[in-house]
Write a structure and sequence with these properties.
- The complex is a heterotrimer of chains A (about 600), B (about 260) and C (about 425).
- In chain A, about 25% of the residues lie in helices and about 20% in strands.
- Chain A has about 600 residues and is α/β, with parallel strands linked by helices.
- Chain A has 4 domains: about 55 residues, Single Sheet (N-terminal domain of TfIIb); about 140 residues, TPP-binding domain (Rossmann fold), CATH 3.40.50; about 130 residues, Dimethylsulfoxide Reductase, domain 2 (3-Layer(aba) Sandwich), CATH 3.40.228.10; about 100 residues, Beta Barrel (Barwin-like endoglucanases), CATH 2.40.40.20.
- In chain A, the strands form 6 sheets. Chain A has a 6-stranded parallel β-sheet, with helices on one face. Chain A has a 6-stranded mixed β-barrel with strand order 21-25-22-24-23-26.
- Chain B has 6 helices and 10 strands; from the N terminus they run βαββββαββααβαββα.
- A 4-stranded mixed β-sheet of chain B has the order 8-1-10-9. In chain B, strands 2-3 form a two-stranded antiparallel ribbon. Chain B has a two-stranded antiparallel ribbon with strand order 4-5.
- The longest helix of chain C has about 35 residues.
- In chain C, strand 1 and strand 2 form a beta hairpin.
- Chain C is mainly alpha-helical and about 425 residues long.
- The chains are: A alpha/beta (about 600), B alpha+beta (about 260), C mainly alpha (about 425).
- Chains in contact: A-B, A-C, B-C.
- Chains A and B meet through strand 3, helix 6, helix 7 and helix 17 of A and helix 1, strand 2, strand 3 and helix 4 of B.
Amino acid sequence: MTSTRRDLFKLAGGAAVGALFTPAPWRLVTDTALWSETWPGVPRPARGEIRAKYTNCSLCPAGCAVRARCVGEQPVALMGVLEHPFTHGALCPFGLAGHHLPYHPARIAQGPVKQAAAAIASALARCAANERIAVLDLRPGRTASWTYRRALAQWKNGTYLTPPRTLGGNLAVNLAAAKTVLSFGTPLLDGWGTPGNVIAAREGFRLIQAETVESRTAVMADQWLPIRPGSEPALARAIANVLGNQPLHDAALETGLTEAQIVAAARELADNGPALVLDARERPEILALNQLVGSLGHTIVMRREAPVPAEWKNAVAATELSAVPDGSVRVLLIDESAPGPYLPWSAVEKKLVAENPVVVAFAWSGEGYGRHAQFVLPTAVYPEMVDDIPAAVDSPAAMFRLSAALVPPPADVVNPAEFVAALAQISATNTLRERADAIHKSGRGTLFTYADAKSTALKDVKADGFWKALNEGGCWMDAVPERQEIPKLAFGPPAATLTADNLPLAVVMAEAPAGLGSPILSKMYQESNLRLAEDRVVLHPTVARECGVEDGGRAILEAGCGRLDVLVCEDPGSPQGVVQVAAGPRTLDLCGSSPRAKVVRA
Amino acid sequence: MIGPNKQIRAARYGMTIDVDRCTGCGACMVACAVENNVPPAHAGATDRNGITWIRVYKIDNGLPYPETRSAFIPVMCQHCGNETPCVHVCPQQAVDVDPATGVVGEMPQRCLGCRYCMAACPYHARYFNWWDPAWPKGMEKTLNPDVTPRMRGVVEKCNFCHGRWHAAKQQAAAEGKPDTEPVQYLPACAEACPIKAIQFGDLNDPAGAPARAAQSGGSFRLLEKLHTDPKIYYRSKRDWVRASANAPHPFAGQHEAGKENHRG
Amino acid sequence: MRRIPSPGSTKPERRTTVDRQLIPRGVKRCSTGKFLLWILPWAALLAFGLYSAGLCLVKGLNQTNMDNRFAFGLWIFLDLTVIALGAGAFFTGFLLYILKLKELRAVINSAVVIGLVCYTGAVCVLAVDVGQPLRAWFTFWYPNVHSMLTEVTFCISCYLTVLAIEYVPIVLKNRKLRQVPSFLVFEFELHKLVYVLAGVGTFLSFFHQGSLGGLYGVLRGRPFAFREGFAVWPSTFFLFILSAAAVGPSFILLTTWLVEKISRKNLVRPEVFGLLGRISGLLLAVYVLAKTVDTLIWINRTSPEIGFPAAQYYSWQPFGTWILFAEIVLFGLVPALILLAPQLRARTGWLVAAAAMACAGVALNRFVMTVQTLALPTLSFDRYLSYFPSWQETGTFLAVVAFGVLVYSFSFRYFQLFPSERELKFGAAAVRER
């Protein structure tokens, strides 16, 4: 039998037709879908054992308890610890994405450590008698703060600087005891204090929010008093007058409220106690209302500090920045690793000596004081850093909890406290353990551990166990003393605010200050306009027209000490004569000390 | 797999969102992006082409300052149960409704990127990947291993954290529970909400919190008048908030006719 | 300026270049140089457009100004428009081969080329418009039979094949290609198929024109577009068929007139213009009537029943009620009346203007269905948004225009698009000689 070419074709054709009746070709076509289903450049998430690690968030003074979902050692999601007796499992959006911070594009991993040390040494060498070396600590009360104070005690002109604060140190707020809260622009429901505690206490008090714009807190308040910008002291005066049965005068006019509104608010404070008065800027004339309504000892209480080793007592006391003479700081070291309130640079700058001051910022990004400092030394960032977090303003009891390192920091980061200690030639390598031991020795309070959600009296825990628990997710809470001391509020004179008449718009900080957060926060700032980004301003459409700018357009925000490129958002719900900006290092530098500005077309 | 003679008790997962509790903090949006591996915005992205599976809108009563009163409404895929608008328009079956859960699913690997479903969705709850997904260097280590990141050119949206549902299902199986019963789990937004304004559960379970909340007074749904039977219920005591969900547009009492609120 | 040489003149035979050899016998075409000069700007535009499209394909659709709300933009609007305008191809075929209107043989070839150009362009733009063009075949592999878009994809790809087959005989009739014997046989065989093709083409076209309308009519979530209908088809399904059938002849009329003007030749008899106009006018009148009834039902029943008073759609500037008036009356009723009036139709100016208005009306309808539908908010706290195409989007579309002009120019130069051109030329010459 011979096979011709024709037979071969027949066979091939028959095979092809036959194949169509098998599943093979159809399956193959379906499978070719695979190559268009994967796409180069799309990262594949790493797989591994899923475990939980615990820590405390150190991004703000609240220090919320955190459970990290980890793949191997790497945290991939953060959530609160629901059973925590104080933070109640709440985490704010910034905390929820805190594990992204080590990979932030603005992250600094290396810095001129040697050069900075040399510059400081040479500056110290030529320090005149009336000049000083100062550390600005944005979050006082930490163990690191004690290290600074001990180190600065080694120099005769060492000064330990803190941001001004009335509440949050020895005085704490007890929200759980409050029945009526009058808040002057405090972002009470938007990051103030410990979010979980505020939420837990929220049912128990009536909230009256006196604020120019309808902030998140104003939205959720029981009553919003839309007052004119800058009229908070006037409203406080008017309420004081009502409480003292004095005539209101023209205070009502100044605030833009009706007399009835002011009287009603004052009556509520007086009749539905215990009351509490809070102010976003802690102006003494406003906080003084607390004395009138009898908050002291009820909603504003004395708080002990977590015990410290006896040998640390040789330390300088804290000084407020305003108390330092102008032009007297030769060396300024700013610890930004534990974020706190941002002081406008103009207020800091005038304290520096005129010629060649040395300013060193310890920070994980150059977005804060790093913009002004000669040297920016990289620090670890949450959740790489090991630091303790003192009790927040709304905790009546002292606390001690650690932000443990969930991931290792880059090799070249600096521990600011150890750096300063080395300058002063004191030992500060094991301070956290020493502090923990001192607390343990006191035997007070309870330890709450996160993994098993158990509270144990501290006296039932061994020192090593205490230290281990703190590192693996735990929180020590001091016992509240039986007998409350009645605190005394020290009221200084009202702070003078600079006014510039040629600037037509009042600046209102509409967004509570938030430091640099995870890139994923673009969901709130960029991919929706849920929160106001630092490069945006909100204007009433009429105001925008008067300024010659339009919705979505570029503009320049001009204030007494500079200008900033911004994007305009129009909002008919915004008051006239006001420009709303978000509080951030740039805007605070610009408008932090003088609350007036103008907006012009870019 | 389900055996042939087993009767599955179908779930109808849904949510109740208490608008009167929502502070508009944005925790749900962040937790959602973290959970579902949604990348941070491209530098050129705006609120019109970004990806936020859940988006919190600030709404107001339309009155001028100082009578303005606002509220926050989180809007995600409403998982419509009746003639789901996006499902029947998809030309290649990339969108489906799971009969066992009632969840409207989206298969990014099947998606052509024609965006017809986006045009069909009255809630604008669908998002297109206009850019290649990109994370800052090193940040891809923080991706959730349970969710595959999507490629550019496809549509994505809320799926009630399908990864979590799947994990709950597996755990139930490991614990020897019958696979015919719906599992209990929490999507990331409900878990992250610090004020617990979002309640999630099986709406078919009359004793469940969301079902009870949905039945109670002050409950409403967005664009209920379109009869798409969304599974996201909202609650508010404020009349104007409830009215805004189904109000004709421009909303009554809006500042000027034809001028909507600019905070959306 | 081109002179028409009389057949009696004894000019020496020109150099015969390939270009010259390809030009059909008995017709006069401009010089190669002039043709190149005409081609050049279009080729440049095509190159620019291809660059724009390339950017969109390589860098992604972020190159466009579309966004999550404006999921469709310039491309979809113009796709719908060119597909409606390209309907002349199927509708002329239907009239000629099925209804036996022999006069239309004069424009059928041109209509096929226009159809081919429109559909190819639309499909190419769609390929850029989708996010994952490599998955286009999924529609065939995992079709969702409930989707109007599946219907559109199936019909358009099938109809494009039909158009390509219909185009082949036109190409094969070329003087040079006829010299290949097997081409001749093939062309002859194909020719026998022409009635089948016309029938299939008509069926497919009716369906996808309808489905394109159905695309919007089924959008339950978009009350501005949503329409009631018969069975699974919303009323827009039928309106799109009607409007496409109505403007198809108008567009053929318009393009033929344009080609006559540009080439300075008589290509078809005036009666054909009149016939196209009459057909277009008649269908347009029916369409306007149907559209009016549909609009009234929509305003008074469909829309209010789902809680959207129709007035709210027109409270957003710039899309006031004027757009409704422009669409139905100005660019619908008015051209229909002109085309139906024999005295007006007899004047070329009126005829062409009316045809242009009819085309504009349908384009406006497609614009409204695409852009206005997407611009309008549905939620009360939603924003009304505007959109303007980016240069990459515009460029990509211009590529289609340039592609169309180029294909048509080459076809006109080398193929017999207007069978009566030769007789008209000799007729004119004879008249002049007399």
